[in-house]
Amino acid sequence: MTPPGAVQFCIRLLRRQLLLAVRRPLEIGNPLLFFAMVVALFPLGLGPTPETLAGFAPGVLWITALLSNLLTSDAVFRSDFEDGSLEQLLLAPQPLFMSVLAYIGAHWLTTGLLLAAVSPVFALMLNLPAQAIVALVASLLIGTALLSLIGGIGAALTVGLKRGGMLISLLILPLYMPVLIFGSAAVQAAVGGFPVGPYLAILGAMLCLAIALAPLAMAAGLRISIDA
Amino acid sequence: MWPIFHKFGSPPWLYAIAGAILRWLLPITLLALVTGMVWGLLFTPSENVQGNSYRIIYIHVPAAVVALAGYYVMALAGAVSLIWRMKMADVAMKAAAPVGAALTFVALFTGAIWGKPTWGTWWVWDARITSMLILLFLYLGVVALYEAFDNKEAAGKACAVLSLVGMVNIPIIYKSVDWWYSLHQGASIKFTGETSIHPSMLYPLLLMIAAFYALFTCALLLNMRAELLQREQRTQWVQKLLSKDVVN
Amino acid sequence: MYFDSLHAALDMGGHGFYVWTAYSVTIVMIALVVIAPVLRRRRFLRQLAGQLKRAQVATAENTRGER
Amino acid sequence: MPTRDSGVPVLAARSLCLERGGRELFRELSFTICAGQLWQIEGANGAGKTSLLRILCGLSRYGFTGQVERFAPLLYLGHQSALKALLTPRENLAFHVSGEGCYGDEQIESALARVGLYGYEDVASHTLSAGQHRRVNLARLLLSDATLWLLDEPFTAIDKAGVDELQALLASHVAGGGAVVMTSHQALDVSCDVRYLNLGTGLAA
């Protein structure tokens, strides 16, 4: 029987990852709980007055989404590395940088997408003006996909290390900063009534660049980590 | 492969060449640094707006320029070691990381201290300084990743990938920080930009930039010699080196 | 010299502290960047020479032992 | 020992040298594996058997000198059983990441039955024993049609009956024009002739 084509194999990998995620539904809830708890920290720290909260809301929501994405991006390849499946993936005839996209797609579906879907609730909690919520969800949708791709590079480079968890944040947080800049700027523009289009366009451009280049770095990173 | 590339790749040849270059480049670099500093500190006129605090420009701008260039040198060395599997490029990358990090720290420290007399605060989130801070994080990321691997061969390859990813991201980071700064502050003066600088102040600056480039090269070569010895300690040429007891 | 006295050079119209601190930190870092690898190389060469001597002593001993 | 090179070369290794932690594991190792041959790599613990296998299958690309050329699709079974504990054996094989092919349900069921896991197809893998995990991994040998098998100590955690069955499978694969390179501490009693590669003394045809 001939090996499946790259895209067909990608879809099969995606279904496998989603099946694995669904088998542990509580683990899907972890990033959302983390998001809720950190958002709840800010009123305790900054004071409950709605005006101050509204002022900080775009930045707080985006930084929390970024941190919860960082929290989960370490585990993207780790479980497969520990039980030896990652080695088999490297030996598959299909191109590795396509298969890696399946892993990142599954990670985005189980974290980023849900984060964006849940974020309006937290936006209301932080008194974000209603007209900015649509911009928040749109920027989070594109932004978390971008964050997952960049986080995947860090995960691929540190998957072989015993104590890679802390290291991954040092490696990829500098690369998250441009995404944060334009993500929260989009929400702030919506709050101020300015057009949101250009910011989302820049985020989209970064996403295209990441989709093109990040898998190459991930594939190289995985081959190096497995070989170490 | 071209024979010169291979010759360049052999450790003893590189060790000897680095030693030869250093013998004449190191004194010239130190001389240039001293003259540049003295010239900038004591002999150039003070600037009408900022008074004498602008003299910090003679170390801040060169350090910033060379720190950024150093990251590109590191990333390109990493690329060569990844693509052509050359051990020497891997050694060059490993040697460039700490030097670049040190120069970035110098640029950050002098930039921060320059902010105090001109803007009254120790840390100002100016576009240049913020980008420099992110560059320092990128350097520290590469150094930390290198230390995290036990197998040094894989560490070099992983750092090569990370520095290449960083190289692609640096223009994006610089542009987005500049844009972010102009969004919140309005396009105020870029106090580190030397647009309309008087020639008498410009020449020491150019000398200092050249001196810092030479300093980076010397530090890189020095680090490479130390790294080469450590990696090739079991080979004959290192033993031969020891028996000759040439410790220059 | 732009400044007429040593004191004026040190004070630099009130900015002297910042300028001289910045320059001294830079000089310290430059020294660190240049001297650290030289020391590391010297220490490593001495350590390797020690190993070599120990190895020679060991081989000399067991050749004497075999005779 | 007849050393007729009947089959077409499946894998060629030239002047492999590997050094690990200052020790030289092997030096200038060159050999060609042809179809119809069964190779057993011998050597004490830490002699570099697994490292050699990982070099042959292409998992290790740096850290050694020399070239390895592969002329046929290969299947590598490592120490770990490459099995997701959350998935059932059927799902593990259906969604396997090695990307060899889309196995139909009846193919999977017959393969699992032949490795003695009849009835365990839909049991969650974390309830199965380590030996059963390895048997699911060995079921891949029946499903895949790769000509070259690289097996890293396939007999570990397998009971006596399983070992005999596996040896018969290896013999039939080699007889059918495949090639097997395996590492093991147990002596092989297999119908076809076995070539030995001792990492300590080198080639012993």
Provide a descriptive summary of the structure in words.
The complex is a heterotetramer of chains A (228), B (248), C (67) and D (205). Chain A is mainly alpha-helical and 228 residues long. Chain A has one domain (6-227). Chain A is 86% helix and 0% strand. Chain A has helices spanning 6-23, 25-46, 50-73, 75-82, 85-90, 96-125, 131-158, 164-192, 197-227. In chain A, helix 2 (25-46) crosses helix 6 (96-125), helix 6 packs antiparallel against helix 7 and helix 8 (164-192) runs antiparallel to helix 9 (197-227). Chain B has one domain. Helix content of chain B is 80%, strand content 0%. Chain B contains eight helices and no strands. The mean pLDDT of chain B is 86. Chain C is rod-shaped, with a radius of gyration of 26 Å. The N and C termini of chain C lie far apart (78 Å). The interface between B and C is large, with 48 and 32 residues.
In short:
The complex is a heterotetramer of chains A (228), B (248), C (67) and D (205). By secondary structure, chain B is mainly alpha-helical.
Question: What does the largest sheet of chain C look like?
Answer: none
Order of helices and strands of chain B: HHHHHHHH
For the record, the count of structural domains of chain B works out to 1
State the end-to-end distance of chain C: 78 Å
Helix and strand element order of chain C: HH
Strand content of chain B: under 5%
Helix content of chain B: over 70%
Label the structural class of chain B. Answer: mainly alpha
Residue-averaged pLDDT of chain B: 86
Sheet of most strands of chain B: none
Uncertain ranges of chain B: none
Number of separate helices of chain B: 8
Q: Work out the oligomeric state of the chains in this entry.
A: heterotetramer
Determine the mean pLDDT of chain C: 84
Number of strands of chain B: 0
Radius of gyration of chain B in whole Å, from Cα?
20 Å
Structural class of chain C comes to: mainly alpha
Span from first to last CA of chain B?
33 Å
Number of helices of chain C: 2
β-strand percent of chain C reads under 5%
Give structural attributes:
heterotetramer; B: 248 residues; mainly alpha; D: 205 residues; alpha/beta; Rossmann fold; three-stranded antiparallel beta sheet
Topology:
The complex is a heterotetramer of chains A (228), B (248), C (67) and D (205).
Chain A: H1 6-23, H2 25-46, H3 50-73, H4 75-82, H5 85-90, H6 96-125, H7 131-158, H8 164-192, H9 197-227
Chain C: H1 6-11, H2 16-66
Chain D: E1 9-20, E2 23-34, E3 38-42, H1 49-57, E4 64-70, E5 74-77, H2 89-94, H3 105-114, H4 130-143, E6 148-152, H5 160-175, E7 179-183, E8 194-198, E9 202-204
Parallel strand pairs in D: 3-7, 3-8, 5-6, 6-7
Antiparallel strand pairs in D: 1-2, 1-4, 8-9
